[in-house]
Every structure is written in C-alpha cells, then in structure tokens.
Recover the amino acids of this structure.
C-alpha cells in the first residue's frame, strides 16, 4: 500500500482527504503511482500529467523523505520507504507568478 499526500486543489477535484492509499502494481515509480491514482480517482486524469503525452505538468512536484524527486525519470524506482508505505509521496502544486 502506497501513501500519497495531495494538495488542496487535487483533494477537492478528487473528492477525497489529504492522504490516499493506493495499491500499486509492480515497482513504485512516478508512473505506476500516477497510474494507480488516476485509476482510483478518475477526475485527476489530466491534472497531474498531460493525458496525451503522459508527461508531468510543469507546476507539479513530487517529494518524499524531505527530498525532491520531481526530476527523477517516470520509471525510476522511488525510495523503499515510499514503496513500503512507511513514508508518503507528496504531490505539491508549485506556485508561479510575478
């Protein structure tokens, strides 16, 4: 069971709480977690990554264990603590403006 912490706007869109738990098939990667997240919460399709290209949206970031995993490849394994559910993967919507 993998734990994911969602920012407020994604919680609202998905109609869920701050943290969700997901069954992820195979290794814990950004792609496998996002696949499971979108399957469990269909309104999130297209919110975190582009539905056509599958690429992460520019203002979405991924953190775990106090480290930024945003630029990790989509199929690179995440830390064992995330894969085991001991630590959550946190999705953060970055703020832009000037």
């Amino acid at each position: 069971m993998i734990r994911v912490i969602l920012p407020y706007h994604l919680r609202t869109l998905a109609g869920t709480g701050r943290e969700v738990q997901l069954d992820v098939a195979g290794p814990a990667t950004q792609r496998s977690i996002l696949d499971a997240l979108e399957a469990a919460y269909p309104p999130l399709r297209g919110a975190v990554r582009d539905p056509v290209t599958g690429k992460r949206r520019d203002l979405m970031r991924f953190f775990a264990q106090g480290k930024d995993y945003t630029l990790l490849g989509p199929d690179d394994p995440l830390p064992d603590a995330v894969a085991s559910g001991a630590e959550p993967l946190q999705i953060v919507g970055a703020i832009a403006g000037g």
About this structure: The chain has one domain: 2-93. The longest strand covers residues 60-64. The mean pLDDT is 94.
